Structure formats: C-alpha cells, structure tokens
Amino acid sequence: MVSKETTIINATGLHARPASVFVSEAKKYESNVTIRDLDKGTAPVSAKSIMMILAAGLGTGAKVEIACDGPDEQAALDALVALVDSGFGE
Questions:
Q1: Is 40 considered catalytic here?
Q2: Of residues 4, 12, 15, 32, which has the active-site annotation?
Q3: What pLDDT does residue 26 have?
Q4: pLDDT in tens, the chain (90 residues)
Q5: Which residue among 8, 25, 37, 81 is buried most deeply as judged by most CB within 10 Å?
Q6: Does residue 68 contact residue 77 with C-beta atoms inside 8 Å?
Q7: Strand partners, 75
Q8: Domain hosting residue 29, numbered range
Q9: What is the pLDDT at residue 9?
C-alpha cells in the first residue's frame, strides 16, 4: 500500500467535471484506490465511485490523502496525484 498527501487546487474543488475525470483515471487501475479529507478527518472513500467523491465534498484548498493498494499501486498513485496537482487543467 502506498499513499501521498496533496491539496485540491482547482477553483471548483473535486466536484462535477473534475470528479468525473478523477474517477475515470482511478478506474484505469486494478488497485483499490481511496481518497480522504485530512482537514475534516473523515473516513476514506472509494476513488472509483463518483457518488462517494461528490458526497465527500472535497473543496478548494482541502488537504487530501490518496491511497492505493494492489498490483499497480505506484502507477495509480503517481497518476492521480499528478492529476490533482495539475488542477485538472482548469
């Protein structure tokens, strides 16, 4: 299992379009992928579920932890952290 902390920097947070992009990327990997809001101290949610991501309410400036566990965990983690760090191209 690998994990990394990052911060949501895009203006809309992880809602609607960015959440869809994030979930699509997570689904490319076999590993189990979760994301959790470190600021709120909430439980991790599946990064492969658009409903769970939207329900988590990850807004701009939220410090999150992305965790991956499985055969392609490092590749999944690197891709998802890079996506968040890029601001989803916004």
A1: no
A2: 15
A3: 98
A4: 999 999 999 998 998 899 999 999 999 999 999 999 999 999 999 999 999 999 999 999 999 999 999 999 999 999 999 999 999 877
A5: 8
A6: yes
A7: none
A8: 2-89
A9: 96
Per the confidence metrics, is the pTM higher than 0.85?
yes
> How many domains are there within the chain?
1
Under 8 Å between Cβ of 58 and 33: no
Q: How many C-beta atoms surround the C-beta of residue 16 within 10 A?
A: 11
Which of 45, 89, 55, 63 lies closest to 8 in space, CA to CA?
A: 63
CA angle 27, 28, 33 (to 5 degrees): 50
Residue with tokens 């409903």: 51
3-state secondary structure of 66: strand
